Amino acid sequence: MSEKSDIVLSVKDVTKDFYLPHEKQNSIKSAVVNLFKPRNKEADTQHALRGISFDIKEGEFFGILGRNGSGKSTTLKMISEIYQPTTGSVTHKGKLVPFIELGVGFNPELTGRENVYLNGALLGFSEKEIDARYDEIVAFAELENFMDQKLKNYSSGMQVRLAFAVATHAEADILVVDEVLAVGDADFQRKCYDFFKSLKKSGKTVVFVTHDMSAVREYCDRAILINEGKISAQGTADDVADEYLKLFNKSQGGSQGADDEKRWGDGRVRISEVSTEINRTSIKIKVALTAGNDSGMDDVVFGYKLTDSDGHLALGGNTLNCQQPKHLNFKKSETKNLVFSMPNILGNGTFSLSGTVRLSDGVTICDDWRNMAVFGNARDEGHYPVVAPATLEVL
Amino acid sequence: MNSQFVKKYRYSIILLRELVRTDFKLRYQGSALGYLWSLLRPLFLFVILYLVFVYFLRVGSDIPHWPVAMLLGIVLWNFFAEVTNNGVTSIVNQGDVIRKINFPKYVIILAGSVSAFINLLLNLVVIAVFMVINGVSLTWLAFLAPLLIIEVYAFALGIAFLLSTVFVKLRDINYIWEIVMQGLFYASAVIYPVALVLAKSELAAKLLLMNPVAQAIQDIRYVLITQTDTPTLVSVAHGAVWMLIPLGIVAFVLFLGAWVFKKQSPYFAENV
Asked: Which residues, 6+ apart, have CB-to-CB distance to A115 below 8 Å?
């Protein structure tokens, strides 16, 4: 078994610079004016990618992770040959179809039918090939009675359904999928993920870009993490997903990733460190609280809550309502480390942690920090290692 | 060989067909007469111009079949204008798609030119009708007309490739081109006979006919409509060798346009 032969996509030492003039020179006047201005070329250049290399093997489900602005979308466009690398090379074998957006080329003035053929042509299907799949596509989109109506008369949900139906019938050797595909209502998201599952089952090579760690753990075989234009981690999906979450958990006192605008309070006792440890059976939330150097503080209460990606409360607690309630009294500049441990009864999803430091009067807020850390939880469906504490009566 | 060609350009051919078809569908979107307008528009334009030039202005009344010759010129000019004017903005107009998927970009320009060409063919049908009504008799020279149309097509295509590339970075170019086209319209002897210019100055007529559009239009008139009183570059400059100048311009513009477009098209996605 030769290792080399089954590599279907290879990215070698790719860098990508975008030249961003402060004022875009798209008129003669500004071009002439700027001609005489000294220009700092380095300051105007954005290094989106700084030397990225990886190989993807046939049949792999490959994840590309990264925060907003990390360069993962640029990588995606590079793989899809939409952008050219500044240096380095990207090569692939077989037919590659990118889904950066659904319904590329859709025209509102055309009918549903005409748009299927137009979108199909962009994905490389001849008229005959679409003819052969047309009924299937329409049935999948559940739009049998609407195909001769103009697209502008479709609801947005219908448009997405139609676009998705065409996309799922695209036959490619390599599929490049952006997570934006999984937009829409719950029913549609489920359909998307069913589609991913079927791709995985059929052994297609898929490059998948996402923020959703539970999806990464569930579908991807391997993944890379891109941070500031470089690969900062690569390996199994689980490992890389953990690294990704560390990016957020490392946040200290309002470094990147933490939402500083959602933090307020008088600051007499502050949350100075946050981290989370999640595995299949347990959750640990570790926080360090530090009192200010003006005075000590008594009767301090720390509370936390976990919210899911929709912002709904999943669970929460504080230093008084746990099994061994603690009253926290701080001396000047003292730091206390708290560790909350609980069984992991959360379902699939991404959760964010918020914390509040308050006094027991219930009025004074010292530090209220929303979304100070984010983590993902992956569950195999139908298989729960931890069950929620429940009582059962048989009547 | 042939199947290899088809394989290599399969995607381009599929896209070209679909884009041309879309363009035609959208063009007469929602109109009751639909495609008929492709014939009706030139027809009514001709009737109006015919009345104006034959009964009021009386330009070129001494040239046989001048109204038909003029209409032929207008049809060819419109083709040239449609390819170039639409070409300038076409890449930027498709920016949304270019940013989402990789495909051969030249197909966009080709598709625009093909639908303009189909329009030209429909217009030529109307011209043919007028030629019959006017009693124009065809000679063997008519077989040269397709070659001359190809010349206009190549010139327009070269300009479209060049300008669409420049427009991605410099948005002033469509205004500049609008002005150039105004000038070129009068420098292409579309609505006046070249014989008028020749009567005033031989040099002016010679220079005028060095312009590929003027030369091609005049030559098509010569081969299709009448050889009398239809001065062409060859007859004005006394030598077929002079043809090398307009043909050279066409070849130069086509190659320059194709080269610039090919060089720049990989970067359209990040620049549009």
From this structure: A103, A106, A107, A151, A162
